[in-house]
Amino acid sequence: MAVSTTSASELTQEQVQKILVQPLAEQSIFLASGPRIFDTNGSAVRIPKMGGPITPAWHGQNEQITEQDPTFDEVLLLPDTMKSVKVITRFSNELARQSIVALDSALQDRLVTDVASTLDAAFFGSTGDGITTPQGMLAWAGTQSVDATSAALDLDMLLDAWGKALEANVNLGSLQWFMRPTDFTALRKVKDTAGQYLLQPDPTADGVFRLWGSKVNITTRVEAGNVALADMSQVAVARDLAPSVKLLTERYADYDQQALRVVARYDVKPLNPEAVVIIENLA
DSSP string of 231-264? Predict the structure, then answer.
């Protein structure tokens, strides 16, 4: 069904100001957090990596040196079976002419924002098989975990997760937290015995939240009951198509309509799964 002057009459009223007020929408938290992005022309991306370590030994003079063979592995992104996120929205030429805003631009902003939201929900989620759809962070194999055993999030859990990340030789400069607003708000309410809040804002900071020195990304796209701590420099994103927009002027000409098509194709995997720590089973 196409958008028409009947279903979108709000855009054609004379008393409406010539602006489009967009709802509050999150930006792409995942892509903005600093993963390593690899652009491709559609083919699969193979990223070689070292396997397990060898064990050099101590040898004395005239003693035969033990031979050891290092192993190698790879991370495969964007196999040819990987699907794309796609959407088409039609609108009538009457609505395009009578709209008080640039309708194609307004629809483009809406569609691109929603496609980005769909990608983030997949990247932070616990679904996806890595074959036809990207596998979310909570579904990655080999990550470390802290079991909250149905308790509320507290500072000790965060410190346990931070300690596990340090054992994985992470880059502290790119270590970041990902949590839901309710979990972060609960942490801010924690007080000491004198009734003072334990987490005090830094008046010299630029508004970025930090816990144990690492940036906090607050997003509703992290599944409830989970908090993630990840070295994003060890996360790889393959990008075949960033959200690209095509205006279709002839496809629906017999209906006197136009359409906008948005397509995006991404994949994501960890280069070092142990650099990701999940606090799970939160109350």
Answer: EGGGEEEEEEEEEEEEEESSTTGGGTEEEEEEEE
